[in-house]
Write a structure and sequence with these properties.
heterodimer; A: about 290 residues; mainly alpha; globular; B: mainly alpha; about 0% strand; transmembrane helix (chain B); MetI-like_sf (chain B); Sugar ABC transporter permease (chain B); cell membrane (chain B); membrane (chain B)
Chain lengths: ~290, ~350
Amino acid sequence: MTTAVEKPRRPMPRWREYGRPRELVVRYLLLLLVLGITVGPLVWQFLASLKGVGEDVFGADASLLPHHPTLRAYREVFDQVPVATYIRNSLIVVVLSITSQLVFSTTAGYMLSKPGWKGRKAVWVVLVASMMFPFESIMVSLFLSIRDLGLVDNLVGVWLPGFVGAINVLLMRGAFLAVPREIEDSAMLDGANEWQRFRYLYLPSAWGAIMVVTINTFISAWDDFLWPLIVLRSESHMTLTLGLSRLQSSSFGYDQRVVMAGSVISVIPVLVLFVITQRWFYRGVSAGAVKL
Amino acid sequence: MATETAEPVTVPGTGRAASVPGTAPSRIRRIGRAVLPGPVPGANGAALYRRWWLPWLWTAPAIVCAVVFGVFPFLNTVILSFTDAKPLGGAASFVGLDNYTRMLGDSDFWLATRNSILYAVVVVPLMVLLPLMLAVLVEKNLPGIGFFRSAFYTPVLASSVVVGLSWQWLLADDGLVNTWLQKAHLIRSAVPFLSDSWLILFSAMGLTLWKGLGWYMIFYLAALGNVPKELHEAAQMDGAGAVRRFWHITVPGVRQAMMLVGTLTGIGCLRVFTEIFMLGSSTGGPGGADRTLPFYIRDVGLDPISGNAGYGSAVSVALFVLTLGLTLLAQRLTKEDEA
């Protein structure tokens, strides 16, 4: 590093900039090892889903790579199992959740970011208080509420308890607070009313937080398991995670390759979203720390 | 302050009235903020909105959700814990402390509590350290490092059900792990990862760790940015190896992040359900031996036939108290750490 400063004229070979060769080799070996541990099981699952009936998935004779890759399991999973119904149900919950979360967390977050109305401290306290209780410790009571509303075995019952999360409201509030007051004042001089300022000034400035809320909501709704397991009863109302878990518990009648195909199908939407909007995922991680 | 008489507000330098007819001042008087020096009118919570209900209208859905599906269920859980309510309805009667006395003498409850606490005790230290090491590994901008970071994050994306399925096949008696161990002649007969109650519990812990690695790695990456590079360089000059630099520079530099990760994962461990459900089947291990507290709450409180929502609520209160205790402990440790 220091030599590079002393002799700026003579550029070092590029790989030298990254460190001593031995250190580099160790680093990459470690990276590959962790890569095998972290994505190995998922890749193995994917490869097994491509195997034909003649190839072993388990046992000493099973190879890692499918010799004759086929999409048979993906056709089968739609024929044998109502996967299309599961996916539709999951999508219903996801779309409902994202819509309600976005609308209500932005509006509430906006108002909480504004000074000058009585009671906003109280609202803030209520929101923070509601985050103190782990879902698992209130789920019995939540279920009784959903039952009293007649929403057992209903997708609305899956969506309703989380229709707007306090954490997302606080996240949006933080993003709106970061908008410079001067911009709003000049917008007011231009005659923009409350709604217009919200819609055309605040919402576009809080784009990052909106993405974080969308992605977090999508993942938690798509991957959620315990609450759908409690609320839903009949097969035609099950979400994808629930349907997949049932495939396993009654597994011995099912072809493992087919179940793996189902798992792969459930991961793909999230993976695609991740590849497109990666940095917002990472932002969501630090946003999660606001929880405390 | 419902109605507002127009104050003559002028834009400095121009002498023009700041108010445009039919806009801001007729509805809100915060306009004064831009042009008047001194204290902002209404900044201390005085009503600025001419229609006082407007802010409430905008925040109402969030308040309703927080109260109806957050605060109320908790209070209701406490009340329910003194009754014998049934999950599918019917008359509930007040039973006093019966549920709590039953709980104290219920060996299954204590087993679930032990499992949950053990889960936290084993997972928290590992989850605090392993992702930090991983973050140090991917911190340096090497060619292709973005790919590795993304790849390490993928287990976070998959639902616990999917990764549970994957691990179930890996750990089966004829699964990949056992096959490889046998091929390497490390073991003779298959390790019963999925039928021995201890092994199920530890496999589930492994699954939690594996799934959380990427998440906390990203979390630590942000924190690592605040550790001064000069310290590392100076230590390297003095001949400190990578391990010593990790313990003496990196770890002290990200202490606060580590405390936060510890707290978050501790709370997370008390909430474990899916991992046990997937690896120990829907019974929660042989004879329910691997059930955690959430698992036990679901079993005793929400079973449509034999469930007792009152008793389930009592166990829920126990879970809440445990979570609260952990949070307070973590806060105290953090404070001591800062002092």
